[in-house]
Amino acid sequence: MIITILSAIALLILAFAYTVTLEGIARKIEARIHRRCGPPFWQNFIDIFKSLTKHSISHGFIFDFGVLMALGGTIATVLFIPAGNLVVFPGLDNVFVIIYLLAIGLLGMAMSAVGSGNPNASIGIGRALTQMLGYELPFMIVLLGVFFHFRTSSLSELAVLQNSGGTYNVLIMPIGAVVGFVSLMGMLGKKPFDTFIAPAEIASGPLVEYSGKYLGLLMTQHAFGTFIEIGLFVNLFLGGGKTIWEFLLKFFLVYFLAVIISSIMPRFRVEQAVKFYWKWPLILSFIQVVIVVFIMGRRV
Amino acid sequence: MSILTLLVASLLAAPILYLLAKFNTKIAYGAYAALQVFSFIYVFFTGRSNVSYEVIGITERLNFNFGITPTNWFFASIVLLIISMSAIFMFPLKKSPVKIFLLALVSAGTLGAVFSQDFLTLMIFWEISTWASLILIIQDKEKSPREAIKYVAIASIGTYSMLFAIFYMLDKLGSIDFSTVATRIESATVEVQLVILISLGVMVLAKMGVFPLHIWLRGSHSSAPDEFSPILSGALTKIGAFLLFTITAALPSFRIFSQLPVFNGIPMVNYTFALLGGISIVVGTVMAIRMEDAKELIAFSTVSNSGYIVMALSIGGTYATAGGLMHVLNHAMASAAMFMAIAAVAYRTGTTKMHEMGGLILKMPVTFATYLVAIISVAGIPPTSGFVSKWLIYQQLVQNGLPFLAFAAFFGSIGSFMYVFKPLAGIFLGQLKPQHRNLKEVPLVMVVPMAILTLLTVFWGMLPSNAIKTINAVTASVGINAVEVTFSRIVALTGEWDSILVTTVFAIGFFISLFIFMRAKKARQVDLMDNYTAGDFLYTSELYHFSYRMYRPFDRLFEKWPSMEDWLSSLSDKIKELGALLKAIFYPANPQLYIGLAMVAIIGTFWWLR
Q1: I want to staple A263 with a disulfide (CB 3.0 to 4.6 A). Which of A30, A243, B388, B488 is the partner?
Q2: Containing domain of residue B452, as a range?
């Protein structure tokens, strides 16, 4: 019990500190790619803590409640992500639970944003939900193949099985891993799939009305969300890690691949994004899962 | 007292209530609600443990067979729960003697159908409730007769198909009892088995609103009186699930068809039904996302969720069967709660179009909470009961390795976020319309049933083991393995689900954020119109509420898709034209000639049939 609580606290602090640092470094790298100087890498910490101390405005009960639900749901989900050998709930961390728990946070965020009464926020949420139907489908189909192959959907077990088997899923199911990565870009809202925040077009979409502590809480939520999504990918396709350091290194690599790709991309319109996901990633994911189910079979 | 007494009592109640309503509608509606609540409580508490059968003989070969088995009890409890809750809910709405007569008939028919032990009894009582509901649909709204005709057409496809199956069974197997048919059908030839099970399956598709027989749901659910829609969607479509469970599990279609080609452990016939379920999940989801009327949207969500039930029960196996039965329970509660919430909103605002409302959350908080919990359950988000059923169905999809069915299941699940959010945003969130400034919450009579359904949804989400144990008893009675459960955990193939733990973790996360929230400076409360507008000035709140065609980009993707309704309506136009042509040729103005023509036709027919 005490160990669980301690490791939960450790995981939360790790997730927060590491992801926010990486987000800061990402801003720096993106700036350098754009031939700008860029902010210091601790800028995101400054942003979060400063906004938590500032004055803010509220648009009523659901505006507050949704933010709390969003952060609460996301914190709960982080605890089910195994980080190397730091596993809070071994055996219970199955992927369906993670994906649906994450949805609590999304729903909270969506309610709060629409509850602000700003149409920009509603447009953003509409786009986010539409895009979600795009990227989740190929991702889930690939996952079906992974679970079928390993007979488990527990993330920590999947990581252990890949490590003990000697190869990672990225080598066993390369097509699936590519699809997973493309879906991950959509989940993270990186370009070209960032139409739902589109700052120049709909004023940051869902985030348009937030200020002060609300913005601080949501930036924290975004950091945790990033940790969950990349953590999912690392555990599913790159074997997690034997130690926490290995996990963090892989996390770093995946995140930076996404950042580098996104910093040279333009933006899709939302229906283009959905069409894209339903074309190549979906076809590839079906090819992968058919290979897994009918040719490779289950892992012996 | 027995089930039979209850059934006779509720059949007799219909005319009595009608006469009573002629004098005083309030007393009649009260008596109706009392009767429904009583029959729910009676069935729920007495039918749980004892298995019993009752027979009314009509002729030597024809009996009405009723019985209480775990299966009957399970379906009856769900259906009666929904009916009794709606019966309380409808009290403040528009009353009429005809409606109460028909409502009483519907519940009597439903009661008879879910306790039936042979196909003919099932069909007769089912038809009673179908025809009563048909006339109920046309009571309130203007466009409804046309929709009711669609309902008749589709329902009769199912009914004739089932009638054919019954006569065929009597001819080939000599019996129509569930239990006798189950034993005799295994020794019959493959053709006989195929004909029987497929023609019964058509009835299931028609009554549950599964592709390709789904077109009646949109019109009839949305144009039905507001108080009847919860019953139509939550209770009546579930009788289809009862028949489906009977043909897939009780007459085990798996064992029967195991000689036919088997695909990933599923016989081809079952796979076809599961595929139809999958198609209706996708069709229902896409159409639901595109609707602008809240009731039409929920009607299409019913198509989608019926698809889940059909898919799960046709796949069979431990997890899918349990998941399918759990989904019957969840969807009954969730769709009834959603329809009730919309009915409550319509009761106050007089409309069900989403873009004509907005910002009702503070005006109708309980309705909002009901709707919120119901949609969380429909979207399958923990900690509501909707998660458990979807999770169990996924387990089976993974176990059998079924990517194409899984595609449909995932599509429906993720798509449901989109369509359930639309009414939430359009009706309850956003800017309040000026004409709705003085709205109040609905009366207590309407609040109570909504609250009960909400609490039950959360209860079975927190403690799914309670429902799963009951379902295990049902599946055990037809010889399917039980799902492993403990007090808070469900153990399945690919992992475990611990509802208590997850809820606790979520609560902890929520309190962490609440702590940070409270420690920070208090926010200044501003009006919803006090918004970022890029420097523009705003005076009219109704123009600042984004809800009409919320998913317009998504809409554009599907605009050019073929529409089954368009296709059918142009087909009906062609038939009308043909009729007009025949009329022009063969319908002389002169009556003598007309009679002469008729004589020739009759003589010709007689000669041909001779």
Answers
A1: A30
A2: 3-505
Q: Are residues B602 and B472 in the same domain?
A: no
pLDDT value for B577: 93
Q: Which among A92, A104, A290 has CB closest to B506? A: A104
* Tens of pLDDT, residues B110-137: 988 988 888 888 898 999 988 888 888 8
Q: How many CB atoms lie within 10 A of CB B601?
A: 11
The pLDDT mean for chain B works out to 85
Note whether B398 contacts A: Cβ–Cβ < 8 A: yes
Which helix (H) or strand (E) segment holds residue B263: the answer is strand B262-263
Which domain, by its residues, includes A254?
Answer: 2-296
Of B401, B403, B429, which is closest to A114 when you measure between CB atoms?
Answer: B429
CA distance B235 to chain A (A): 27
B472 in the same domain as B338: yes
The H or E element that residue B450 is part of is: helix B444-462
Tokens of B30: 């009260």
Sheet holding B484-485, edge to edge: B484-485, B489-492, B495-498
Q: Buried b vs exposed e over B189-204: b needs ≥16 C-beta within 10 Å?
A: eeebbebbbebbbbbb
Is it the case that residue B60 has pLDDT exceeding 80? no
What's the pLDDT at B143? Answer: 67
List chain A residues with pLDDT less than 50. Answer: none
pLDDT tens digits, B413-446 = 888 888 988 888 888 888 888 888 888 888 888 8
Examine the pLDDT at B604 and tell me if it is beyond 90: yes
pLDDT at residue B533 in the model: 75
Q: Is residue B522 part of a domain?
A: no
Tell whether A1 lies on the interface with B, counting CB pairs under 8 A.
no
Calculate mean pLDDT across residues B351-362: 83
Q: How far apart are CA A62 and CA B372, in angstroms?
A: 12
Mutate which: A59, A106, A150, vs B, most B CBs within 10 A:
A59
* A71 interaction partners in chain B (CB closer than 8 Å): 509, 512-513, 516
- What's residue B56's pLDDT? 74
What was the ipTM of the complex prediction? 0.91
Contact B430 A69 (CB under 8 A): no
Question: B505, B520, B553 — which closes off a domain?
Answer: B505
Tens digits of residue pLDDT in A42-76: 888 998 888 888 888 888 888 889 999 999 999 98
Interface contact B493, partner A, CB < 8 A: yes
Residues B93 and B201 in one domain: yes
Residues B488, B605 within the same domain? no
Instruction: Give burial (CB, 10 Å; 0-12/13-18/19+) of A125.
Output: buried
Alpha-carbon distance A69 to nearest alpha carbon in chain B (angstroms):
6
The whole-number pLDDT of residue A168 equals 85
Is B39 inside a domain boundary? yes
Rg (alpha carbons) of chain B, rounded to whole number: 26
> pLDDT for B364-379, tens place per residue?
888 999 999 998 898 8
Helix/strand/coil (H/E/C) assignment for every residue in B51-82:
CEEEEEECCCCCEEEEEECHHHHHHHHHHHHH
In a domain, B565, yes or no: no
CA distance B72 to B74: 5
The answer to whether A57 contacts B431, with C-beta atoms less than 8 Å apart, is no
pLDDT at B144: 67
CB contact under 8 A, A71 and B511: no
CA distance readout (Å), B524 to A53, A120, B429: 14, 21, 20
Rounded Cα distance between B126 and B112, Å, is: 8
In total, how many domains does chain B have? 2
Asked if B407 has any chain A CB less than 8 Å from its own CB, the reply is yes
Domain total in chain A:
1
Structural domain contains residue B58? yes
**Residue at a domain's end among B505, B528, B557:** B505
The token duo for A204 is 């940051």
Residues B495 and B577 in one domain: no
Q: What is the pLDDT of residue A38?
A: 86
